[in-house]
Structures are given as structure tokens and as C-alpha cells.
Write a structure and sequence with these properties.
The protein is of the alpha+beta class and 430 residues long. It is built from 12 helices and 26 strands.
Length: 430
């Protein structure tokens, strides 16, 4: 799957693209944007610009005819994600050719829009949303706080645990998050009360965008699951820990999770991520082997993605003083216990159908180290330990006016680093 679009030595005629830490021509992530009051439409990020794809269709056809037809007149990428992997790959190669061949510069430059002049939209009309719990270090850390005697429940190492999330409250980076209200029980000896959440948290995740379609009643075998992974984004699964603690038994997350989810606006395609596939987390000796439907040799060799994600906090006081955001944690997606293909295979083993427009969260990514925590729940030991910020402020959970930002990237020797852009939001008082 490695081709000329991954060649680190190929350069683009677009000014600044070759030194851009996120969007060199080897990336070409896809999103939906508008500019100057225009209708939303598809674009590809290249350096500090957005390549207006409908404006450039004439340059991309006939090599990318199927993809151009899927994008024509569309305000989402759903139809594009329904294409075959081969059709999506042809489109990537066509865009790459136009942005690297100087012979196209005069005409194609007319389709470049400065990124600062663009408003990014949700890239997909989200059909459905499932959130997994594949970060074993996070599961163990949180489980130790809630159930010290039994941090991981018996099913964790047998099935990719997940729950059905809420697609209607997913927003693109930059949209504020209103502090949720709900039932909490601060005092176990008194009845619950309804008030604003006191223990608001973030969770560092990757969002997996589904491609193609499967039939209802027909499980997707793990050997074919990779064909249904069209791309990835950053995902922040906001969590109201006090609401969650009261409501989660016996059926799990509900109001503690469905008030907001933030995603980065750019979809990093599976094709762009090919050089950064990696072996999944090695299971410790004594862990049970996955059941047969979750095992595939190719997936065990390179079914994970070597992606680094960092999370930053900037308080209202820091913003007023002009202080930079402070790094809270840095995690790697190779620390996930289950691969994306295993998540797809398990999601469909009962016959559940999936289709373009579906989003799957990986679950919170944490590592084994103290600086590799993917949530404040872990950093503050469930609120028992204060996090001291550079300006002297302290936090156990998020306060109104706090801005949380995630950035992510993939890099490997011999290939150009590619990034995910920004996934951020500010907490607004309820």
C-alpha cells in the first residue's frame, strides 16, 4: 500500500507545505469547509491552505472520476467514504499529482484558499457513534480508583468493551462545551441533587471513520475489517465523572457522556497512515488469547497505528495573562489493547451493520508512565491530588473558562511526519 504519495523526497509547489509539521503533501487530509459565506464543500489541507476540491475537479478527472462524482454538490464526505478503498486511493494520487507537478501550479493555485479564511465544519453527517474502552492502562487506572480489589472486570481481556454514544452532540474543534447539569450524589448518606457537574473531565481518544457498508446480519471478518477503516481524527470524549459515578450502574454511560464530544475537523485517511502502521500492544504473559474471530495474522503484525497525541490546558487566567497552554499528558495509540480492526470485527459479530457515516472512538488512550495519562481522573487520582499549573493555579477537574486542546501526529524514519491538526474546546458555564 506504500506508493509515490508517501515518498518523503517529493515536494509541493504550494508555499510552505514542505515544512508544515501537520499538512505536507504526503498527508492530504480531507474535511468540509466554507469561506466568504459560501456553501460548505470538500477540501484537502495542504500547508497553510485548503485545496478547494470541487473547484479543481477538472484537474483531477478522469483519474479520480468516481470520487469527484461522490463529492460534487455535497456538504459532507459521506458519499466519498462509501467508495471502495481503490477509488479513494485513486483520488489521493490525483490530488497528489496536481499539488506536486509544477505544470499544474498556475491553474491549481486558483483553488487554494488560506486556511485562516476558512470555517471548518463537521466532515461527516454522522450516522451513528460507538465509543470503545480499548485503553487498558486507562481502564486499569480508573478501575483501581473505583474497584481497588478488582480494577479490570473479567470480560475486559476477552472483548473490546464499548457503548452506544450520542451522535447528535458531536461538534467540530472550536465549538464551546457547556458544563452539563445532572443528578449527582456528593454525600452517600443523602439523596441526589440536580446541579452543574463538579468533576468535568476530558478523554484523549482517536476517532475511527467507517468506510463502505456491511449488510445487516453479516459480520465483517477481521481479515476484511481493514477495508472499513477509512480514516482517523482526534476525539475528546468529555466526561462528567460525578454524574457518571451515580448513573453508570447497571447499564453504563448515559448523561455523563452524551452532552458533548469534540473531534478534529480533518480526516487523516487510511491511505496516508499506511507508513505508520505498527504491531499492537504485546499482551502480557498469562493474558488470554483473543477468540478466533478477533485474530488475524496481518492485524497482529501491523494492525495498530503509531500515533502520538498530546493534550494541553490553558485556563482563563492563563489566557488573560497571555500564557501558553501547559502540557498535561502525551500518549501513544500503540498502548491500546485492541486494534481498530478488532473493534470493527467485534462491533459486527452479532450481525450489526456499519456504513460510511459511522464513527467509533477508541476509548481513552493512556500509557504506563506518570506523564502518559489520558484524563484528569487519572492525573488527579480521582480528585484526591491537585495538579499544580505553571502559574500557580491548581486543578483536580476542569473549571469554567478552561480550554483543552489536543494535537497529534505520526512519524517514522524514512517518511514525512504528518499531523492531525487541532482538537480543542473551551468550557462554558451552564
Amino acid at each position: 500500500m506504500i506508493d509515490e504519495t508517501h515518498d518523503r523526497n517529493v515536494t509541493s509547489w504550494v508555499a510552505g507545505a514542505d515544512i508544515h509539521e501537520d499538512f505536507p503533501v504526503q498527508n492530504l487530509p480531507l474535511g468540509i469547509f466554507s469561506s466568504g459565506g459560501s456553501e460548505p464543500r470538500a477540501g484537502a489541507a495542504i500547508g497553510d491552505y485548503v485545496f478547494d476540491l470541487p473547484h479543481a475537479f477538472a484537474l483531477l478527472e478522469p483519474m479520480a472520476e468516481a470520487a469527484c462524482n461522490a463529492l460534487r454538490g455535497q456538504t459532507s464526505l459521506n458519499a466519498f467514504m462509501s467508495l471502495t478503498a481503490a477509488e479513494r486511493r485513486n483520488f489521493r494520487r490525483a490530488v497528489f499529482r496536481v499539488l506536486t507537478d509544477p505544470g499544474f501550479e498556475e491553474e491549481a493555485s486558483k483553488s487554494l484558499v488560506a486556511a485562516d479564511d476558512c470555517v471548518m465544519r463537521l466532515p461527516i453527517d454522522i450516522r451513528d457513534y460507538t465509543d470503545f474502552y480499548a485503553g487498558i492502562h486507562h481502564a486499569r487506572n480508573v478501575g483501581s480508583l473505583l474497584r481497588p480489589e478488582n480494577p479490570l472486570l473479567p470480560n475486559y481481556k476477552f472483548i473490546p468493551v464499548g457503548y452506544h454514544g450520542r451522535s447528535s452532540s458531536i461538534r467540530v474543534s472550536g465549538a464551546d462545551v457547556t458544563r452539563p447539569r445532572g443528578q449527582i450524589r456528593p454525600n452517600p448518606d443523602e439523596p441526589p441533587v440536580v446541579e452543574p457537574c463538579r468533576r468535568l473531565d476530558y478523554e484523549v481518544e482517536l476517532g475511527i471513520w467507517v468506510g463502505g457498508r456491511s449488510a445487516l446480519g453479516a459480520p465483517v471478518p477481521i481479515s476484511k475489517a481493514r477495508d472499513h477503516i477509512a480514516g482517523l481524527s482526534l476525539l475528546n470524549d468529555w466526561s462528567a465523572r460525578d454524574i457518571q459515578a451515580w448513573e453508570y450502574q447497571p447499564l453504563g454511560p448515559f448523561l455523563a457522556k452524551n452532552f458533548a464530544t469534540t473531534i478534529s475537523p480533518w480526516i487523516i485517511t487510511a491511505e496516508a497512515l499506511e507508513p505508520f502502521r505498527a504491531a499492537p500492544l504485546r499482551r502480557p504473559e498469562g493474558d488470554p488469547a483473543p477468540l478466533e474471530y478477533l485474530v488475524d495474522d496481518a492485524d497482529q503484525e501491523a494492525g495498530a497505528y503509531d500515533i502520538r497525541v498530546e493534550v494541553f490546558l490553558r485556563t482563563h487566567e492563563m489566557a488573560k495573562s497571555g500564557d501558553a497552554a501547559t502540557l498535561l499528558g502525551s500518549v501513544r495509540a500503540t498502548d491500546l489493547y485492541w486494534t481498530p480492526a478488532q473493534m470493527v470485527a467485534h462491533h459486527t459479530v452479532n450481525g450489526c451493520d456499519i456504513a460510511a457515516g459511522d464513527l467509533m472512538g477508541t476509548g481513552t488512550i493512556s500509557g504506563a508512565g506518570e506523564s502518559e495519562k489520558g484524563s484528569m481522573m487519572e492525573l488527579s487520582c480521582g480528585g484526591r491530588r491537585e495538579i499544580v499549573l505553571p502559574n500557580g493555579e491548581t486543578r483536580t477537574f476542569l473549571e469554567d473558562g478552561d480550554e483543552v486542546t489536543m494535537t497529534g501526529w505520526a512519524e517514522r524514519a524514512g517518511f514525512r511526519r504528518i499531523g492531525f491538526g487541532r482538537c480543542g474546546a473551551t468550557i462554558k458555564k451552564s
